[in-house]
Amino acid sequence: MNNIHMHSSSPKTHQLIRKKTGLLKTVFAVCSLTIAAAGHAELGEPEKDELKFGFIKLTDMAPIAVAYENGYFEDEGLYVTIEAQANWKVLLDGVIDGKLDGAHMLAGQPLAATIGYGTEAHIVTPFSMDLNGNGITVSNDIWAKMKKNVPIENGKPVHPIKADYLKPVVDEFLNEGKPFKMGMVFPVSTHNYELRYWLAAGNIHPGYYAPHKGDTSGMIDAEAQLSVTPPPQMPATLEAGTIYGYCVGEPWNQQAVFKGIGVPVITDYEIWKNNPEKVFGMSKEFTEKYPNTTARIVKALLRAAKWLDENNNANRPAAVEILSRSEYVGADYDVIANSMTGTFEYEKGDKREVPDFNVFFRYFATYPYYSDAIWYLTQMRRWGQISEPKSDDWYLETAKKVYRPDIYATAAKELISEGLMKASDFPDFVSEEGFRDPQKHFIDDIVYDGKQPNAYLKKFPIGLKDETL
Questions:
Q1: What is the Cβ-side half-sphere exposure of residue 380, based on CA atoms within 13 angstroms?
Q2: Whether residue 39 has pLDDT greater than 90
Q3: Could you tell me the pTM of the whole model?
Q4: For the chain: N or C, fewer Cβ within 10 A?
């Protein structure tokens, strides 16, 4: 896959901008002193201003594209190159070895790297990129078998469609000695955990990992076998019959509908309402070496996230146009618009309103909550990626190593002082402890309280608790 380079300006342009910036600095010096005197420590100049960011071709990379296209990075004195990456591993390696200064990442990636599951490296996130945005799609043949079990009202399936309706189909496969295969995008992806969560809630075992025994297939005791397929290849893999269903971000569920090869049966919003999705990841070393640059990156991303959601998603059509370009997601405008503009099409013609399918700023979507990190860690433990039981304190300590609300608060306060955002756009930084209230909106009605990870794990009928495989 060829990487795509986009330069916001040439070196000559940089020199001109820097000359102008020098003049502006003098002009604004008095203003800066006034602000500092009022008790706000002004953010210094970026220590590194030429940056390269990576992303995967998914609609939820939108904050990076918008920050670039709307000039928010340049407003912060940052000259950014953006590169599409071949897959999540290549992207992570790029951040670890410094080829990339930061990237659109799966929320599980910085956590897994920091605890040494897979590639070991200390990756942090000061910015959560979005909520929701994924779906689970099955092939037309599987849907035809499933549909017999789904309640119908006014000629349409009743949602949410649970994995309970898939279980007889999976049992049929197993009785015939055939493995039931499904795709997800990466072992530590939200998609893996959401697909596993949905299956287990329907009493279908998605399998365990046993890294201490050298087994990272995730298929021990599996009734549904989950394997990795990169997002853009999901529809073709489904069409080829290699897998019978998959969990992926947009636009690759809607693509299956447009191609007539599959049916998205459920969105992640219906599995866990307003679940955290991607993050912006950087190496800890980068954030320590370039603190002003880091805060300025977060400022630009915050402005982009707000733009994406403001005025009831009024800017989404413009965002879809940006994302449809080949250098970004490169899918048809209509395919991306199907979910980005607040609707979602299940069976062809069954288009429903899902205004929060993609959330970039509402509900404090961008804040790096420790409880979000802890949820991912509980799922790593539930399925054996974390081999042994851990204390509640371990979960919180690990979350604090990776999720960095301190950096986020620095950027947010700067935007408030500049009049670009309001304090009400953010959690109360004085009282915020980093935990969402206990969350009730899961498909199996199990309540999640991030302060009690082990008690949470004990609630699941399927999944590891105190044992080691």
A1: 29
A2: no
A3: 0.91
A4: N
